[in-house]
Structure formats: structure tokens, C-alpha cells
Amino acid sequence: MRGSREGGGATGGDAGLGRANGRAFESGETPSRRPTGTLGPTLYYARTRRACMNEKRLVVACFGVLVAAALAFLAYRFIAPLTVSVFLYYSTRRYHKSLKRLHLPSRARAAIVLASLAVPLVLLIGYAVVLLVVDARSFIMEYALLDVAAARLPWFEGIGTLPPLTIDGLYTAYQSGQLSPFITFATDHAAFLTGLLSELFLDLFVIIIVTYYLLIDGGRLREWLLRFDDDAIVRDYLEATDVELEAVLFGNLLNVIAVALIAIASFTLYNFVAPEAVEVPYPALAGALTGLASLVPVVGMKLVYLPLAAITAIPVALTGRTDLLVYVVGFLVVAVVVVDTIPDIVLRPILSGENTHVGLLMLAYTLGPVVLGFYGLFLAPILLVVGLTFADTALPRLLGVDPIDADDDSLSDSQRRLDDF
Description:
Layout: H1 2-26, H2 41-77, H3 79-98, H4 106-142, H5 145-152, H6 167-175, H7 180-188, H8 190-226, H9 233-273, H10 283-293, H11 302-318, H12 325-351, H13 358-372, H14 376-398
Helix pairs in contact: 3-4, 3-8, 3-9, 3-14, 4-8, 9-10, 9-12, 9-14, 10-11, 11-12, 13-14
């Protein structure tokens, strides 16, 4: 009887092993032989299942690393347009939200925001290019620079004069072969010019698309990032960074607009007072460029109004009318005090964010282009805000420091006074 019971027990164990192997086949696992030693069947198969799950997780993790590496490579390739997109997103997000009062859908509001940026910028660039071309043509014709260029550059030979900048003038010059040297130059350098224009339009396309969808789906991206928050450190850090980036970058956009309006008004009023010989050329364009240059603190605006003062003063000094230099000095005083100093003292501290130090922000805007290139003008302040917010919000908690905030909302009003405890 004992032997039969033992045999039956063995048979039952084998049946349990068969059922476990069947479940292993159904779940995609590799069935194993009966465990040896004192390890029970349940514990053994649990460990086997855990090992298989770990292998699957390792495969998924490796695939995720490969995808992340590919995305990082693409982001590095387009780091300049992506940086400008993030800059524009935070600069215009508050404007995008303010359009809700018009009861417009998010896509329509994003299109309005981009149009509000693109149309003035295109008009400003177009106006500047037209003025530059017209004045350059007048300067070349006045000082006979074509003869000097023909002596040094072979493809300028045969060009005696530049055609009028009209449709009829350009068409007549094309028919007469006067534009042939320019066409030949463009043909010889077609690959370089095509690559340059293609890269420019590709970057513009990336900026428009990324900014547009950040305005529409920025909230979804934020919620996705917060899914990985375990103990509220990530949430607090992301929220603080988000608020500070919006305050800093939106404040800089307002600063650009304010400085541009102040500069246009100041230069226009100066031209009303000054004689024609010492007037500021194109005050509206000069004021708009001054506003854009204010993105670079300390030296930005000086790159505009100092050359303007030189352009105004040199012809007067060469003609011996030194008495008019008083007006040029007056222009410099207006530019330094009204356009440069007062906005820097009054506006920039107000519009530079809540926690970011103004001096560090100035260094970021100044040194960013020097170290990183053009896009450093936008990337450096973003990195500064991200780093300072991390040091202020997340780092103390990661180090085990839990500073007590005097304005902690977890305390009731009655607990803020010692006598009421």
C-alpha cells in the first residue's frame, strides 16, 4: 500500500510537472525538466518565469536605447532649429493661451501666433533687403567700384554699369547680355547656393512645424513626462522649469518689442529736430533692428546705434561742417540713455523671470553665441534656466535636504503664529 501511494504521489508530481510545462508552452516560455534537490516546483517555475521576463525586458530596453540614440542623433543634426522652436514656443505660449477668449480652436490659435511672428519678420527682412540693395547699387555707381572689381575679379569684366532695379530694367539687361556674368557666377556655384538655400528652408520648415505642434500638444508632452514621476521630485522640477522658462523667454519677447518701439519713437523724434544732413537713415528699420539686437544684453543695441552715429557723422566731418556734430552727440545721448540704459534698468529686471539672476542671464545671452554659435543665443538661456531650477528645486531633495518654506501651504493660517499652536 505504501508503495502504491508513493507511486501515485510520483505520478501526481509528474502530472503537475506536465501541467506546468503546458502552461509554459502557452505563455511562450521554455519548459524545463523537473527540478532537483529541495527546490519546490512552484518556486522553481516562478524563478524560471521571472528569468524569462527579465530577458524580455532586457531586449525591450536595448531596443529603447537604440531608438533613443537615433532620436538624439537627429536632434543633434537639427539642434539649431529645435532650439529656436523651443525658444519661440515659450515666448509665445502665453499669447497662444490669451487667444482662448476668442473661442478659437487650438490649431487656429497656433496659426495666428505663427502668422503674428512671421508676417512682421518677413516684412522687416524684405524691407531691409530692398533698402540694402538700393543703397548698395547707389554706392557702387557713385564710387565706380565696378572698375575696381573688374581689375581683381575676372567675371566682373564687361560690366560697365548696373541695371535699374525695375522689371523693365532687369529684363532689358537680360536681353542685352548685361546679366550674363551674374548668371555665369550663379551657375558655377549652383551646388553651393542650392545647398545653402535648401538647408535654410529645411530649418525654417522644422521651426514652423515643431513650434506649431508644441503650441498644440505641449500639454500632452508635459503629461507624458509626468508619468515617470515616483515621488513628486520630477513633477515639482518640471513645473518649476516650465514656469521659469515661460517667464524668462516671454519676458525677453516683450523686452524686444518694447525696445523696438522706444527706439523707433526716439529716432523719429530726433529726425524731426536734426538737420537733414545728420538725420538717422531709415528710423523705423533702425529702431526695429535695435529691438532685435536687445536680445544680446550689454553690447547688442550698441551694434546698431554706434554704426548709425558713425554713418551720420563721417560725411559731415569730411565736408567740414563740424558744427552739426553737436546733433550727432545728441543722438548718441538719446540712444545711450533713452534706448539702452533706461530699458535695461527698468524693463529687463521686471521681464527677466522670477528666480533667474539677471547678471547670469546677460552672460548666457552674451557668451552663448560665442561658445555654441548662432543658436547659442537661444540655447544658452534655456540651459541656464534648466540648470538653476534643478539646483534650486530637485538637487536639495536628491541630497536628502528638505528645506522648510516659510510660505508652505501645508500649514494653516492658525499654525503660522506661535501663540496659536
